[in-house]
Amino acid sequence: MDVKFVVISILLVIADGFTVRGPSSPLVAPLGSSVVLPCYVDKPLPVQTLKVEWRRTDSETLVHLFVDDESLPEIQRQDYHERAHFFTDQIQHGNFSLLLDKLRVEDEGEYTCKVYSQQDSGETVVQIKDVGFSSLHITVLVFCIAAASGAVLLLCRLIYCRSKDTVSSSTIWNLQLSLVFFPNICMSIAFIFWGLTEGFLLEIVPCCALYILRPVMLIWALPYLKYLQDNTKTWTRFVKITSELSVFTVTVYSVLFAYVWRKSAHDTKYNCRLGLGLSFGFVVLFCLALCTVGLRLPSQEQTKEASSCKTTDFYFILIFLSLCQLLQLMFSFGFPSPAFFTVVFVQALLLPCIPPLPRLQAKYKFLFRRWITSLCIITISLLDIILVIYIHLAILEREKDYLEWTSVDVFIEVLKMIVVFESFVTDSREQRRRQQTETSQQGSNALHLCNEVVYMFGAVGLVLLSSVTLTAELILKARNGEHVMKDLRVVVFPCECVFACYWLVHDFWKIVTTEYGSTHNQNTAETHEMENLSAPVSPVSL
To answer: Does the pLDDT at position 60 exceed 60?
Structure first.
């Protein structure tokens, strides 16, 4: 009887037992990706008495735990917090697989899945092997390295060729254009692949658009470089900052429109969506008008009335564009108090107030002093930037990426300032080249050297900074499983603002010196002429 009892007990255990199964081979996954660690039994088990443990085999570190019909992520090790998850709806079917997100280098190794049910238990071992970066990660690194190394090599080659008198001007021009286009194209492609792997829409599209459009500003600034003044091609006069401003603004606000429209897809209130669509439509419309008017800004050959008419249209378009941008932001993120609209209206009117200031010098003698005009322009410009920052912080205060959006829109505002100054200071690219040549004979070499240093900082330094930042972010994201820098816009756009602000100051200096000088000389000449006419005629001795 004892032997029969033992045999029957063994048979009952075998009948009620279960087998834990796992993968037949090691799992291979790229860094930063997600991987499923399989663990399942051949038949469903009662969840009331079920306990499942996932641990690291080498250190017995608790990765995740399921006990008493409940998943307990709060007691897992901090390294796996919010990264290791059960498929809770599959546990009742005998599936105890673990989803591990944001794979890191440290995640490589063996994991043990132990299952306890009543008086029985079982386990399986799962091994994770690293292949390193995925093909998309490697592509991002390749283009970042190509942009950085290409910018440095082209700069060195350009400096070497400039030091040799035997090198032709066409070679220097081709090297300059290569420095303008190649690194920026590589960085834009790197950001595109970064978006396909790790980035998100609100971050990637503005950064890509910036680097695609950066050659516009770099070509626009070429006539300021002394060593290229005699070699600048005629087609560069058609490259204007208004084009960069228009295209970049449409791109950024298209992303904002798509983001908010998708976010409010289930909103039953259609008034905000209607306002959002209308404001975005007007942003696109005024950007197209700004680009069109900017391409045919007044030239020297046009009459004074035609020039004044086109400039007036240009400023009105700029005012309405600013208002529509702020309206789209409000429809996207909410409206502040009604008194806030006064601040918005004042900010939209500030920039068009700058150009008339130097012209008032011809009318009022107390404005002949250069520092008065300079102080007025600086005050209005700083007040405009301060109001832009205040408005965006007030509208975006509930958004987690308010600093990123503010940095992008501040850059757009700096572009607007450059456009306003440029439209007033110079009528055409050829006129600016002649003015620069004339002033270069009187000015110091320090200004030309400063222009070249800042230009190379924008053409090479900013590319290096973005390349190193993106590479470091990619490596640290793969190693730690999360972004070290939450959004690359907080690095890219403030640095770009520094580069753009230099040319803004440069144009500001031209407004003060050129306009003041021309007005002062004109009034001085008229005064001398009046004095000569009013002077008595001396008798002629015979």
So the answer is: yes
The closest of 235, 237, 213, 226 to 412, measured between CA atoms, is 213
In whole angstroms, give the CA distance from residue 217 to residue 503. 10
Sequence ranges of the chain with CATH classification 2.60.40.10 = 17-130
Read off the pLDDT of residues 335-394 as tens digits, 9 standing for 90 and up.
Answer: 777 778 888 888 888 877 776 666 666 566 555 566 677 777 788 888 888 888 888 888
Write the CA distances from 129 to 123, 139, 327, integer angstroms.
20, 21, 52
Tokens matching residue 205:
């599209």
Contact predicate 473/190, CB 8 Å: no
* φ/ψ (deg, to 5) at 9: -65, -45
Cβ of 377: how many Cβ atoms within 10 Å? 19
pTM value is: 0.74
List the one residue out of 183, 204, 208 whose CA is nearest residue 487: 204
Residue labelled with tokens 């798509």: 258
Q: Are strands 120-130 and 27-29 parallel, antiparallel or unpaired?
A: parallel
SS3 366: helix
Q: Which tokens sit at 70?
A: 């409940």
Rounded to an integer, what distance in angstroms lies between the CA atom of residue 360 and that of residue 373? 9
Q: How many helices (H) and strands (E) does the chain have?
A: 16, 11
3-state secondary structure of 76: coil
Count of beta carbons in the 10 Å neighbourhood of residue 271: 9
C-alpha 486/C-alpha 161 separation (Å) is: 42
Three-state SS at 40: strand
Both tokens assigned to 79: 């390294």
Q: Are 489 and 207 in contact (CB under 8 A)?
A: yes
> For residue 80, what are its two tokens?
């796996």
CA distances from 511 to 132, 357, 373, 381, 505 (A): 55, 10, 9, 13, 10
CA pair distance 410, 315, nearest whole angstrom:
19
Structural contact between residues 484 and 473, judged by C-beta atoms closer than 8 angstroms:
yes
State the Cα torsion 316-318-320-326 to the nearest 10°. -160
d(CA 412, CA 454): 20
Out of 104-118, 224-238, 352-366, pick the least confident: 352-366
Q: Note whether 493 and 411 are within 8 A (CB).
A: yes
Is residue 318 a contact partner of residue 416, using CB atoms and an 8 Å limit?
A: yes
Superfamily per CATH, domain 17-130: Immunoglobulins (2.60.40.10)
Ordered alpha helix ranges (H), 264-369: 270-295, 304-333, 340-350, 356-359
